[in-house]
Amino acid sequence: MLLIAIAFAAFCATLAGGLLALKLKDRLHLVLGFSAGAVIAVAFFDLLPEAIELGSRYHSPGTPTGWAAVGFLLYLILDRIQLVRSSSQRAALGAGSLSAHSLLDGVAIGLAFQASPAIGTVVAIAVLTHDFSDGINTMNMVLKNGGDRRQAMRWLYVDAIAPAVGVGSTFLFTLPPSDLGVVLALFAGFFLYIGASDLIPESYHAHPKFLTTAMTVLGAAVLYLTIALAGH
Fold it and tell me: Cβ neighbours of residue 211 under 8 Å, at least 6 residues apart?
């Protein structure tokens, strides 16, 4: 029941982000800055430490960090693929890429809960903040590339459903303990790329640096405290 509730919350967060993008354009950089700090904090303070601890029985300490680097680079490749396409395809490819990322977010939640409820809860919080910004980016991606509001809403619904599909897919399989650490490290790399290469630059674009920096630090601090409390 908890995973179903989280999947529904992810749907609502993505939808809310997209709808807010139509109304509060001047304040979105603060939300994106907070989201950047949140997802980076989850990677450094939760996923990587848990990946190292879970994998210590099966791998050397360098293995999880290596897989985190692989995750970072894989996400980079996914992002760069759409840049080589023509401008007429950019809206669909961009929105489709964001939806694929949201699907992976849902898978991350499900697999994190397989590791432990505490890890799953922290990852779910980070994913919800990311899904909110994903909704914003999906809406902007379509509208800025010649799409109309109807097309933007259609892609927004696809992006909103994707995390729930990802969560649901993890009911169909269970990873052995020897692989959970590797997968958590892989998702840590994903989150680091999302925060450092996507959310932070987007939040800083044409906006005051002090406020966005403060929100990024605040996002990291809030998630650090959440992780610390969940660990007790």
Answer: 29, 30, 33
Q: Where are the domains of the chain?
A: 2-230
pLDDT surpassing 70 at residue 25: no
Q: How far lies 199's CA from each of 124, 155, 174, 228, in Å?
A: 18, 20, 31, 24
* 3-state SS, one letter per residue, for 177-229: HHHHHHHHHHHHHHHHHHHHHHHHHHHHCCCCHHHHHHHHHHHHHHHHHHHHH
Tokens of 70: 């692989």
Over 70: is that where the pLDDT of 219 sits?
A: yes
The pTM assigned to this predicted structure is 0.67
- Name the average pLDDT for the chain: 81
Copy the structure tokens of residue 132. 């909110």
Are 164 and 15 in contact, with CB atoms under 8 Å apart?
A: no
Cα–Cα distance measured from residue 179 to residue 76, given in angstroms and rounded to the nearest whole number:
23
The neighbour count for residue 22, using CB atoms within 10 Å, is 14
Q: Is 147 helix (H, G, I), strand (E, B) or coil?
A: coil
Q: What is the number of helices (H) and of strands (E) in the chain?
A: 10, 0
Burial (Cβ within 10 Å: 0-12, 13-18, ≥19) of residue 222: middle
